[in-house]
Structures are given as C-alpha cells and as structure tokens.
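User: Hey, quick favor. My workstation is busy. Could you predict this chain's structure for me?
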Amino acid sequence: MTSEDLKKTEKSRVVRAPTRGSYDRETTYGILDSTPLCHVSYIIDGQPFVTPTFQWREGERIFWHGSSASRMIRKCEGQPVCLAVTRLDGFVLARSAFHHSVNYRSVMLFGTPTKVEGREKELSLENFIEGLFPGRWETLRPMNEMEIKATTVLAMPIDEGSSKIRTGPPVDDEEDYALPIWSGVIPVHPAVRPPVPDPKNLDNLDIPGHVTGFKLD
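Assistant: No problem, here it is.
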C-alpha cells in the first residue's frame, strides 16, 4: 500500500472477486465525482438505517448535508458510518442465469463525520452547487441566516475504504460458449432530458448555460 492508497482494513478489504477491488485514490475520486447520489448507513438504537442523499468531494474529504432536524444528520455526527456510491454501467447477459451480472463502478467508505461550521459551511454549500451547476451560485439569492441555521453539513476524511469495478462481457462456463444463446452487455448511461421551466418563471428568461450544458459524465 502506498501513501496515496485508501486504508485496506478488514472492513474495507474486497473479499468477493478481489481482483475487481481498488484502493487507489484517483480511481475512488473519479467514481465519487461522477456519482453525486450516495447512501449513508448508520445505527439508531441498535437498528441499522440507510438514507440516500447527495455527496460532494473537496480534496481528501467527502461532504453531505441535510436538515438540522434530520435524525440521519444527528445520528451520523461523531459516530461511525458507512457511505456508498454506485454507478450502473450495463446489464451483463450470460448464457446461464447464474452468470448474469452487471457492469458497475462503486465506492464504499468508512469513517466518523464531523459537523462543518461557520464560513467553511457556507463555502462547502457553494461548492456543492457549483460542482453540479458551474456559475449558478452567483446568480442566486444569498442564503439567509435562517436557511444556514436550518442546514447541517457533515464532512468525513476519505481514508478507509475501497472501490470495486466490473467491466466487460459475461464470463460463462467454457462448455456454455457453444450454446446458441445471445450473450453480451446492454450498456446503461445516464440520460439528461431537456430542462422543464418552472411555470412561475418570469417571462422572457433565458435558460442559463449551466442548465443547457448540464451533463453527468
């Protein structure tokens, strides 16, 4: 393991199909930066919960936010959590049901998040919006004190975890390759549809470039 790798521990070690696992930071960052939707798991009174939310990365830390009244936010702060993202790239159709699979890119991270406060909190929320829609923040009404107070931002070091990736065609039993069954991959790519304006928009508003040019890589 190099200093650039994520920590490989008993929690983060890829056990099933370990050749698909990676602890490389650049691989991990690429998946995180292309996949804003994540799932955060945490414990309340011994019961596991999983909450979907949006994440964003700043350097070697991962961030997410929520209502200050959210039990997810309150229970995650200062407690061990697991955060995961997955990007579906294709359905893999094999010659047997057993060998059907999916092509995907995923990341699982472990750590203890802390609350982001003060000016750093406001800057992190700006980075969240700007990361998705570059140039939008400066066009918006500034956040007021009530909105800032009602929002909590958590941050966690990207330190312990792993990536896991599957690519390529199906892997069948050798004797099954002689069967007359179509096999292959149905690629899946996120589709961004044309923007739908709010019916309460003012008249004659131009659609900004960060809307018309929005894409998910």
